[in-house]
Amino acid sequence: MSAIYQRVALLGLGLIASSMAHAMRRRGLAGHIAGHAKSAESRDVAMELGFVDSVHESAAEAVAGADLVVLAVPVGAMGAVAEAIGPHLAPGATVTDVGSVKQSVIDAVAPHLPDGVHFIPGHPIAGTEHSGPRSGFATLFENRWWLLTPPAGADPAAVVRLRALCEGMGANVDEMDAAHHDLVLAVTSHTPHLIAYTMVGVADDLRRVTDSEVVKYSAAGFRDFTRIAASDPVMWRDVFLSNREATLEILGRFTEELFALQRAIRTGDGPLLHEYFTRTRAIRRGIIEAGQDTDAPDFGRVKRD
Amino acid sequence: MSAIYQRVALLGLGLIASSMAHAMRRRGLAGHIAGHAKSAESRDVAMELGFVDSVHESAAEAVAGADLVVLAVPVGAMGAVAEAIGPHLAPGATVTDVGSVKQSVIDAVAPHLPDGVHFIPGHPIAGTEHSGPRSGFATLFENRWWLLTPPAGADPAAVVRLRALCEGMGANVDEMDAAHHDLVLAVTSHTPHLIAYTMVGVADDLRRVTDSEVVKYSAAGFRDFTRIAASDPVMWRDVFLSNREATLEILGRFTEELFALQRAIRTGDGPLLHEYFTRTRAIRRGIIEAGQDTDAPDFGRVKRD
C-alpha cells in the first residue's frame, strides 16, 4: 500500500500512538513518523523500540511539515497541546485525536486551530489494560471500530483520506455526531468502567474477606471487572470529568435498574430475575455475531481440547 | 492414576457434570460413571457423546451402589434431588454438590441424607458462559479453585478422598466455613454478575442508542459484562435467591461506593477519581500473580505479534 500521509506527527506515545506507529509501518501507510511525548522516558523508549523515525522534545517541533497530526494524549491535556501546536501547523494539514470523549475535545481543541487546517476528531475503540510506549502492537486495531465525528462542513476529501488510514490499519470506520458518540460510549464503555472500578474498590475495602481470597477466587465474574479496572487512571479520570452529563445519565438509569433487581432478590421474586437474566443473553449473542468477540469458552482463557 | 471412586453418580448433566466426566475419564479417576438428568434430551446427548457409562431416568436408580454422588443441579433443585435419593444411597457413600452457594444447599440437602453417608459440600470456581451437556471439556478445572465446606465433624478420610478427586481433575482445593464461602463468593462472583446483568439491561432499554450500536461498539468494557451476563439464567436466579443476605450486604456497600464516585464526577473531583482508579490496579496485578489469569493484552483476544 502506498503512503497515505507523507509525514505523521504522533503527540503522545502511549498504547494507541505506538500501536498506530507499528500498524502504519507494517502497512507502509506513512512516510515519516515524528513522535513527541511530554515524558523524556517515553521519548527514549520510542527511540529504543524504533517505532518512530524522529522524536521531538516539543510538540510544536514535531508537527512542523506534518500532513497528519494525531493528538494521542489524555482528554484533559488535548486543549493545551492544541494551543501549543496551533501556530506551527502546516496549511492543509489534518488534525485528529484518539480521545474516548468527543464533544469536550472539540470544545478544547477547535479554538486553537488555524483556518485551512482540517480537524476531524476520532476514537479507535480498541485497547488493552496495558499502557505506555512499550504496550503498542501492530494488530491492535484489526476488526475494531474507529469512530470519526467530523464537524458539519468538514472537507470531504480530508475525511476520506483519514478513513483510508484507519481502514489501512485494519479498523472498521463509522461516522457519527460527537454528542451521540459520547452517549453511546457512556453506555458501552464509560459507565461499565466506573462500575468495575467501584466493585473492585468494594472488594478491596471489605475487611471480612481478605484480598488474597478475592484474588484467589476471582475466576467467576470478578476477574473481568479487574481487567476493566486496571486501565490507565489518568485517561479514565479525564473521561469521566469530560463526559460527565452522559455518564451521570446512564449511571442514574443503572442504579434505578439495580434497585429493581435488588428488591426482587429481597422479596424472592424468582420469575422477575429469571426473565431479566434470560433477556441479557440476546445481546451477548449479538456481539459474537457482530464479530467483536469470540465464543470460545471463557474467551479461551481455559484451554479447550 | 488409579480410580479414587469405583462408581460415581452425576445428578445433572450440564457444564460442570459433563466436564467432571471428561476429566475423570481422562485421568482414570472413576470406575463406572452413572449419569442422570431430568431432561430426556440431556440424557440422550450424554449417551451420544459417551462421557458417561450409563444413563438413568431416575436419580434413585443412578445412585444405586455409587460410592460418590455429585449433585450438579441448580441450587434451587438440590433439596428435591436429595430427598429423592436419600433412601437409595449406599452406606458409607460420599455425597457432594457443585452449587455456587453453600449454606442454603446444606440446609436443603442435609436433612434428607441417612446416617453413615458423608455429605461434603463443594464448589468448583470454574465455568464458561456456555451450559448444557455439550459444553463440558476435560480441562475446565485445571488450575482453578475447588472449595470444600465440610461440616464440623466430617469424616477426615472422606474429605481427603474427595480432595484427591478434585486435585486429580487439576483443581486446587481449599476448605472453609460455608457461611464465609457465601460471603466471599458474593464479592467475587454473585454481586459482579448482578451488576453485569443490570448494565446489559440498561443498554438494552436505552432507546436513543440502538442495540446494534451497543453491540458494534462493545469492545471497550461492555463486552466483558455481556460475557458475565450470558451465564445460565436458572442457575443465577437460584444463586441470588439462596445467597440473599450476603449479596444484599455487598450490593449495599457497592451502591454506597458508587454514589461517592458519582458525586466526584458531578463535582469534578479529579484527585479522588485518580486515587481510586490507581488503587484498583493492585488487585489486578495480584490476580495475574496468583495465576488465575493471563496478562496477555485483552486476554489475548487481540492477537499480538
Oligomer kind: homodimer
> How far is the N terminus from the C terminus of chain A?
39 Å
Query: What's the CATH H-level homologous superfamily of the largest domain in chain A?
Result: NAD(P)-binding Rossmann-like Domain
| Portion in helices of chain A | 40-55%
Rg of chain A from C-alpha positions? 21 Å
Q: How would you spell out the order of helices and strands of chain A?
A: EHEHEHEHEHEEEHEHHHHHH
Strand order of the largest sheet of chain A: 3-2-1-4-5-6
Number of separate structural domains of chain A: 2
Pick out the low-confidence regions of chain A.
Answer: 296-305
Instruction: Give the CA-based shape of chain A.
Output: globular
Report the structural category of chain A. Answer: alpha/beta
Number of strands of chain A: 9
Account of the 3D structure:
Two copies of one chain form a homodimer. Chain A is built from twelve helices and nine strands. The relative contact order of chain A is 0.11. Chain A has two domains: 5-176, 3-Layer(aba) Sandwich (Rossmann fold); 180-292, 6-phosphogluconate dehydrogenase C-terminal like domain (6-phosphogluconate dehydrogenase C-terminal fold, Orthogonal Bundle). The first copy, chain A, is globular and about 65 Å long. The model of chain A is unreliable at 296-305 (pLDDT under 50). Chain A has helices spanning 15-27, 40-49, 59-63, 78-85, 103-109, 156-168, 178-205, 211-216, 222-229, 233-242, 244-267, 270-289; strands spanning 5-11, 30-36, 54-56, 68-71, 94-97, 118-119, 122-125, 145-148, 172-175. With 305 residues, chain A is an alpha/beta fold. The two termini of chain A are 39 Å apart. In chain A, the strands form two sheets. In chain A, strands 3-2-1-4-5-6 form a six-stranded parallel sheet, sandwiched between helices. Helices cover 50% and strands 13% of the residues of chain A. The interface between A and B is large, with 116 and 116 residues.
